[in-house]
Amino acid sequence: MSAPTPPPSYRQATSSATVAGSWKPSLSVVHVEDDGLSDVSGEEDIMEDFKQEDVDPAVALRLIAKGKATGNRPALWTRSVIQGYFFRLGQFIHRHAGKVLVAGLILLCVCCLGLRNIQFETRLEKLWIEAGGRLTSELEYIQKIHGTEPGASPLILLQTPEKSSSNNSSSSSSLLTHKAFLLHLKAALVATEVEVEIFKTTWTLKDICHRVNFPNFDETVPAISPALDQLYPCSIISPLDCFWEGAKLLDPQNPVVIPGYHERLMWTNFDPQNLIAALRRDPDAWPDEDRVSYNAEPFITFLNKMDVRAGYVGRPCLNVEDVDCPEKAPNKKSGDLPNISEIVSRGCAGISHKYMKWNEELIFGEIKKNRSQQIFSASAMQTIFHISSANALYERLKSHMKTSEDVIDTEWTEEAAAHVIDMWQTRYAAEVAKALRSDEARETITVYNANNLQSIVASFSEFSVVRLSVGFSCVIAYVCFALKRWSDPVNSYSGLGIAGTFLSGLCVAAGISLSAFLRMDFNALSTQVVPFLALGLNVFYVVQLVQTLSNLVDEEVATDDLTGECLKQHGLSTVVSTMAVSAAFFAGYAIPIPALRTFSLQMGILTSLSCPAMLILFPAIVSLDQRRRFARRLDLFCCYGRPNPLPAMQYSQAAVVTIGGPRARALRKSCCASPARHGRRTAQSCTSAACRMGQPMKLGPLDQRLMESGMLPHGIRDLSGSTNSIFRADAPTCCNDVQATCETIHVSQWFLRIYLRLIVSSYAKLFVMLAFALVLGGSTWGMTKVEEGLDMTEFIPKDTPEHRYLEVSSKSFAWYSMSAVTKGGFEYQNHQQLLHDFHHAFQRIDQVVKDEKGGLPSYWLGRMREWLSELDATFDKEYANGCFTSDGWNSNASSDAILAFKLRSQTGRDDNHETDNSQVVRSRLVDRRGIINQKTFYHLLSAWAGNDELAYASTLAMLHPEPKKWIHDHGDVRPRIERSQPLDFAQFHFDLRGLRTTREMLKVVDQVRGISGNFAKQGLPNFPSGVVFSFWEQYVHLKYHLLVAMIILLIGFFVILSIALMNLWASALIVLMTVILLVEMTGLIGVIGIKLNAILAVILVLATGIGLKFSLRICMVFVMGMGCKNRRVQHSLLMSVWPVTHAAGSMLIGVAMLAFSGFDFVFRYFFLVLTGLIMLTVLNTLVFLPVLLSLLGPVADLIPNDDPDRVPALTPEPQLSRAMLVRNCQRTGRIGASMVSLSTISEEDSISCQQIFLEPQITVETTTSFPANVNGTPFNSNGPCDEKGSTDASSTASLVSTFTVSTRAKVKVEMHRPGSAAKSGSSSAARQQFSDDDCACQE
């Protein structure tokens, strides 16, 4: 008997034919349909025009082998192998769903144990400074020499007008008023009053501040040295230094008494000229109570070199009514208020006009000057208190033993010192707010604590349970809404979506835990971005798999095969898209920023972990949910069931219809026909048509044997009668269920139908391509507007004093410090001219702050040369005056000249510290070329560091090893000057101004790096250092790193896609869409004004993976389809539009939570940019890509020869799975009695063989004729819901309907020896399996 032609839906038939198993009646076992029933309404299903048959790759290979089609053999073979593995994996999961799920959940919970070991990194310099390369080696060199902590940190008091953001000059000029300065003074003086009680000790500003480095007079002037130690002030930079009130910040707690001076000294009454005059008086003229004999000349010399002038008493008073305002104040006698604009235009000075000169741009922000260079407007002003670092405070108090008894009891450590500093600064900020609480001034005060910045960032970097809960709940709500079937609570998938979302959340927690196990440091990105972004990406797979499951259920795939079919269709795309997204995240590691590298690795781990969870654990949940639906339990409320008014399968004289199948959909459509054709539907018409589907019949022996075999479907109860009949169920009471479904208006399907028809029209293609060209043109223009940069304020949480200060500072001050560092392995004494040239080279940089003469501030070697040159000049002058002899000096020689004599006598040899007085006359400390004596260079360095300590400290040279300090003693005849060690670190300090944009920053970085490189070629090992290079030099190579990452990633994508799809053209189109997405994203950030930086570079890398993730599904369905390009585009969109839409919606919900982050960079660079990325991706995927595929798409993997839109007929072939060896077997008679006796199968009467194997595939054809209804009413072929109730002449003439049912069964025959026949009688029975897709019903 010839095999019948297989039905169109042959994919499931062939897949079911390969699975052996016992005969289990279920909802999808038997499916008998009437082809005429689908045409009763004159229309097809609303989406039938766009559907295509999904061809199994194995079947496609057989079609190609038989010459019925052509196609891409490698792609089909690869896909058939991969899908076969996924199908078998799905079947295994379905059989052991509970075990797989429990084991997976236990494993994920074990992985979550690492959440206890999370460590946070909140130091900005460790997070946002480029790692690797020269910058890392330079920072490591500095840390190796001087440690990780600076010697002092700033505590800044910032004052701005209330309308600091306004561009109105009158608003900003209000700061140059007496009221504003008095308010600033009031806030600053709070610092001198704050005290904290810690460790049984009272701590004040004097205890924790960084003090000015004044020389030690213990040996030279021991009588006044203790008093001077109390007088030495804290290092403070303030606009108040322009006025007498600035001295109030420097005053010691108690007045200082200097022997020989009648007045108790405070900085507010300290007149250096009066003190010098008093100290130079003849001691005999002093009063008896002040008469002390000591030489104060070293101290007087020190005051003259400092250029202290009249101190603070010679400066104008802000408040002339203050009783302490000195008489020498310029406005004391007149009582006039000072002209603040004129005074501050020249800058301000501290105690020393030579070493403590504050540039006006350092203390005033965004100043504006008139033509006479007088400041008339300033938007901000600041006072800077230099606070000691924890290490410096610890060492200072440890050496001085200030709190020896109490502190030793409390274990004085660096941590204790840091606690003291933090407590004092916190108290100061609170006291300032308290002091100004009732002040009605318009100006505002902000206290910026550099040390507190880290703690604030740390507090905002922790996981927020509230934000995580809200974000998770929003995602669950969206998934529940998107997957809910309101009209069918049994076949709804919202519970499945919720379970998948919880599984995704558990995967996120497990991935974060694994990152902690790998000792990754967590930061703000790890807590603010990673959980929500990873959850959105994981829910993408949940929604996509649920949509695939829904399509398979509508196609009536066997329940046991649903999980396998889901993985078969969904597995390959999931693996490829996961690989793409993970590769994109891992490629982000190429951006050398530690915080972003950690973010990329964590997201890569989380994305990789989601793949096995979505392919193993979630299918197990799907299998468990199938049991709920089969038991007709309600979605979300599985404890409650829904009664089934209709049998699972309906049978009548007209047809046998499976609920939810294609014929049922035809019934529903017939019921929902337009009123113009069918008139108004009523319950009566429904009853008269569908409910009059005949009375129960007595069916024949065939049905009896089916009933005895246990093969009957659900709902069949009473079968008997003639063999010329077909089984049927009891007729339903009415078609209420069908009608209820019919009355549902599917607006989404209506829109989808319009969209699918419109997208392939010629006019739509032309419009889309023009719009596409316009978008690309705009994106290209936007790319030219992209600027590089990243504001420091974006790393700081909003609504904090630190954020406010950095915001104002970056806008108003634009003042930065930098250093040019020279390293070791260089002979400093022999290459002094090269050092001078190196320093002078920075004169060409416009942004470097110059002195009043337009030159660069002196650096350490220049200061040392000036000091030695002055000593040479003094010695030459006094030597000419006869103050020196060949062996020594006379009593009239000055201290400086004697010091020069001692230094000139040095030989440069360390043995016994020999001196040679004979070379004093001919040897000079500095020659005419300006070169310091090379032989005694390091001896002279020791003398300069010890005797000109203020000048040494003012250069900020940070020499290492620190020079040995030798202090000149006037009475020492044979000095022993210790030789300092050769230098391996020296610093050239510069100040930069006017740096407000990244372009200006990069310009300075480029110029400085150029100077550094030129002198490195000349043999001077050096490198620049400073915040400008630490945070902005990353932009120099940013585009290079981004380009390298993109090229590697795109090449990797192409290789992966080529292997997965075996279609180079399709792979190239996907990569092309990825490149187009990058162009659009770059243009978008240029248009909306977001700056390009390392964060955005990582997001652009991520965009490639997300873009490929969306495009892959459509392209895979396109190449697997059949027919012309337009038809394949429509089919691919039909299968992908809702998964893409819902997946994008779920991602948007997750990304939306980033809008509520406390960090501005999270909002700008993740929320805004990722939202734009998702929208552009959806636009490209659903609009641009379909048009591109319809025009330039690749050919299909399978092209039938006859009809390109239909799968050719293919006869199933016998499959030999194993051989059974039967030895010494001779048997006569029937081999194995079949449970079902089929009249169309011929059975052999005798078989005799030695070895036999038989596992044929049998096609059964049964023809049954139905007479008219028992009541004489002919059957209405126009449909059960047609109200006309009449037929045409041909239908009336023929009162019988003939159905041909074709099915396929597996019959397994086992041969046994006669002695074992009784034992194996049951196992040798033939087993038959019906597949609903193998049924072809013909009338």
From TrEMBL:
Residues 1-20, 1270-1292, 1310-1339 are annotated as: Disordered. This is Protein patched. InterPro entries: HMGCR/SNAP/NPC1-like_SSD (IPR053958), SSD (IPR000731). Keywords: Glycoprotein, Membrane, Transmembrane, Transmembrane helix. Residues 1270-1279 have a biased composition (Polar residues). Its main location: membrane. Signal peptide: none annotated. Belongs to the patched family. Residues 464-624 form the SSD domain. It comes from the Eukaryota. Residues 1315-1326 have a biased composition (Low complexity). It is found in: Membrane. The chain crosses the membrane at residues 465-483, 495-517, 529-550, 571-591, 603-624, 1040-1061, 1068-1088, 1094-1112, 1133-1159, 1165-1189. It is a multi-pass membrane protein. GO terms for biological process: negative regulation of smoothened signaling pathway. It holds the Pfam family Sterol-sensing.
